[in-house]
Structure formats: C-alpha cells, structure tokens
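In this section we walk through a basic example: taking a raw amino acid sequence and producing a predicted 3D structure, encoded as discrete structure tokens. The instruction is simple. Fold the sequence below.
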Amino acid sequence: MSDHPHQWLKPNRRSLLKAVGTGALAAAAPVSLGAPAAAAPPTTKTRGSTAPTHAAWTDLPLLSGEEFPIGLWWPPPPFQTTLERYQEIKDAGFTFTHSNNYLWADHQIQRRALEMAHQVGLQLVIDDPTIRWLRNDFEITTRGGDFTLTPEQAATKIRQVIDLYRPSSYWRIEDGRLLQDGGTGAGSVGLSRAGADWTDYTFAFDTAPRPTGGGGHAQAGWAFRAQDPANTYVWLLANAGYAPEGAPGYLAKALFVNGAPVWVRAVPLEITVTPDTWYHVETTVEGDTITTSINGQVVDTTTDDTYRTGKVGFREAGSESALFDNVQVTALDGTVLLVDDFSGTLSKWDPPNAGGYPSFVGLDVYDEPSPDKFETLARIVEIMREEHPDYLPYINLFPTTDPNYVRQFVEVVKPALISFDRYPLLIDGSDDPHYFLNWAIVREEGLRANLPTWIFIQTLAYAGHREPTAAEILWQINVSLAYGCKGIQYFTYWTPDPARGEAFESALITVDGQRTPRYDAAKEINNGWLAPVGRELKPLVSESVVHANESPLPAGASGFTPNDYVRQVSGDAVILGQFRSTDTEDTTRWLFVANRAHSRPATARLTMNRANVKDVLRFDPASRRYEPLRNSAVVEVSLPAGAAALYQLRTS
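The resulting token sequence is shown next.
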C-alpha cells in the first residue's frame, strides 16, 4: 500500500516556523419561597488535579471497547463525500475509515468527511497534509541541522493539526467538579448516557452558579426527563433576569420541545442566589408531578405530563457558567441509578459539543516507513502519547519477512499497535508464499510487546495481483483472526483512479461510484460474521496458532501437535487458533478453526482431550451466543471455502 504526497500541497518552511511561534429564557409569573444559601458544598471529598483527565494509552479509540474495528483505505473522493456515500460505508459494516483518496488535500474536505462520518456513526483517522509534510520533509531531532524540527516545534504543529479536528466541549472537570463553561445562545445541554427509560426518580446534586459578565448575573441549569438535548424539562437557579424584579433569587422553569421553549415560568425565591455559592438541589419526578427543593426546603411543585421518562443533565447558555458536583439519581424505590462525584472522567455523560467532530479518532502518521524514519515517528508518537493521549497515532508497516524490522519499529517508535499490509492473491493464481511468515512475525512481536495487531486485506486486482473472490476475502479475514488479529482493514474501498498507476482494477466501489459484487460480499461478511466473532476474539489473548493436516508447511507456519485441549485433528487442512482470557486463572479456552483453503470446502474431525475439556460450545454469529454441541468428545467441523468456526472449550 502506498500513498505518496504531492509537492505542491506542502506548506513552506517559513509558514511552519511562523506557526510555531446568555441564553434567554423569558420571564413569567411568580410563585413561592426558599431557604438560606449554603457557603460550601454540603458534602466534601478529596479533590483531584486541576489538569484535564485523559484516558489511558490503552483506552485509545478503536483499540478499546467491545466493538471490533473494521476499517477501509481509500474512501469516497472529495466530490463523493456525501451523507449517502458514508451511509453506504456504514451499511456495509465498517466502523472506521482512513481519510485518504485526496481528502488530505484540504482541511475543509477533511472536516466535511468528519461531519458525514459523525452523522452516520463512523469514526475517522485523519490523513492530514501538514502531518504528511512534517514526517516526509523534516527530521524531528534535538541534533539540529537543515530540514530539522525540535520536538517542541513538532509538538506545536501537531497540536495545531489536532485542534482543527478534535471535538471541544462546554464541559470539563476542574478540581474534581464538573464545570460547564458557556453554551450556545440557545443553550447547550449535556445528558447522562444512561436513563432513557428512567421514569420516577430524584435528581440530586450540588451547584455553584458563577458570575457572568460585569453585572453579577449568575445562573445554573439542569435538565431532567430528557428525551434528548432539544426535548426536555430545564430548571434554572438564577439571581436576576426574571419577573417580578427585585427578588433575591429565582427558580426559572421551561419545557423544551424540538429545541424551543413551549412555556417558561419563574418562581421568586426568598433565598439569595449569590455567585460562587454552593446550593444543594433536588428535583423529584413522580407521574406528572415535579417537586424541587433547595437546601432541603421545597420551593416549587409543578404539574406537567409532556415527558414521562428520560435522562438527566445540565445546561448553560451564552457566557453563563456553573459548577456541579455530587450527582445522585435515585428511583423512588431507593435504587440508585447514577452516582458521579466527578473525581474521574466524564464517561457517564454525553457533554454538549462546542465544536469539532466526535468522529475524529486519530492521525494517519505514516504508511510503510523505512527504519530511517523511525526516530521521527517515535517523536510524533511520544508527543501524542504525552499531549494527546485520547487520539490514535496510526502507523502501518511494510510487508516483511525480517523480524528485526518489526522489532526495531516496536523498540524505537513505541507504537500503540502493529499494523501491516500484505496482499497474498497473486495474478498467476498462486498465493504469496510468505504470507504466513509475515503474520507469524507480527503475531510474535505483538504478544511480546502486548500490542494489538491489525492487517489490510486485498479487495482488488492490481499489478501482479488477482481479483479476489468473496471466499478469498473471507479467507484473508479468517486466517488473520486465527493469527490473533484485532483489527481488519480493506485495501481498497473506492477504486483508485487510473492516473495513479499500478493498474488498479475495481474494488468494492468502482471509480465512477458503482457497487461491485465485492461490496455485497464485504457487507455480508462484516455484518454477519466479522463484527460478531471479532467482538468475541478482541479481548482474548492468542495462545497458539497451528496448521493441521498440511504438508509441507508454508514458511512461518507451525504444525499441529496434541495439547491439553485437542488430542488429534484429522481430515482436511485447517488452521487452529487457540485463545485464552486475560484472566490467567480462567481455564476456559476458545478455539478458532479456519479452512486453510479459499477455493474449496473443508471437513475436519477434532478429538478433544476429555481430561480437560468437559463441554464444547459453538459460537452462533446470528444470535451471538454459544450453543452446546451434542458430542463434546469429537467435534466435526464442516467449513465452506475460506470460512471458519469459533468454539468455546469449557473445563468445568
């Protein structure tokens, strides 16, 4: 795989070094009274650092979570970067895409791709022109010299690039409390991730409205029974801006439907609402009755049945800001539904977006680097690890038969994963004789360094390579899964244009945008097999991979020998990948059996070691459940061309 930059798109050295250097709620009728203000939050706790909380390096997008990453290279070109095209990608079962195919020519095009990806639920690894120029034309080093950048200069440029794409939020954790600092003019609401089905509950929290502008205005808002940010109840604790004028404080109440207030009512309070003073608030919803208390005293009861269920959250508008703490949502039967003291992350919430793109998950740092680039790549990875640990620094390696190349990459660059490409389906009908050797090298290094391993699979004919059948696409995927792969990427999705050379023929989508049979094949494979089985294998550790009933063995392959779980394998050639849990005390094993052949079916007979294996269950991707086999002593495996099966071996 290659994707070389064009000289005319690069910024010049001079530009690089230069670069291094109230939402209104209308007031309405009065009602009731209140209680004295509290000078500090009613409950205390040890506060954390004032620095933003970042996910650990192991919590990177695509690498963490249950979803198996299924990606593509060469998405729709700029003039086809539309919602319909990105929905087409999502429908085919892909979870992310790299933003090449000339998208890197312009930041505005990248942003459009990010917006399209966000709308359909895809993630995007950005191939940025500044990163291309930085990595290709400069060495990042402290030694100095021509065409060099210091790590500090490189860090500034990387920060500027990431700031172009990353989402920003009106929410952040500050000193162990939630700060909502502003919102849109119409108001911005952040909601709990859980709670769509919550009915009757009490939403309790502490809040300190902060001063807005020079007039001392202060207001803190909260949402409840929220369907979404535009359809919710919003209550506000404020010190001014509502009728009748002159009250020491107000409880302003609003019902929002489709983002517009249907009604707004203000309740004058007897308490004084003072900026930077903490108040304890409880709002209880029961049936159509909404009861609010401040500092332990009921100040309002409202009747409305527009919303009967929904989430909780907080709201500010314009330049308003407030602190929130000690959240607890409790069902009326006493069940605690949500607790958050904001001493950790915002993982329980969907904060309001203040710009940027939630679909942005990382940067394409380099494709197929030679070892002389490793020092510069190491600097980039180090900068991202230290300053941008929430974003993936993606690097893809050359195909290789040299274990030292992969080992040196890992030792010098210290990457987040090992990704490589090798396209095994050759034009003469044969397969690359070193495909398994390359996989064995990458698998071994991934296990040694505790890094996930990814691969690109071949989807098209090009120089010296044949057009894959559906079974050959499936075979590449299943061989890779047997070897412990944790991420599959398709090369390519859109067909590269003829001007690029290399005699590219049609991929999943033709140059002019027509689907090929390989699109339909990928859609079926991704949705019906790879996504569910990948979710099962992703958290597991590859324990062994062997080829059974194959002679001679291909380069890099290990032959089957009996072990504690499988005594014998007879029949056609198959590849057995054995997996274990990350919990070393768990004796359960998973056995992935892949057809060695991509052009014919295979049958094999696996004799279990009954001293250890008590029950065998086969994974059903349709139901996503393991179904017990009638005979756990001998497992009869029948696989179509390129196919595989996943078994769970229970030892007790």
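Looking at the output, two observations stand out. The two ends are 47 Å apart (CA to CA). The chain has ten helices and 36 strands. In the next section we compare this with other chains.
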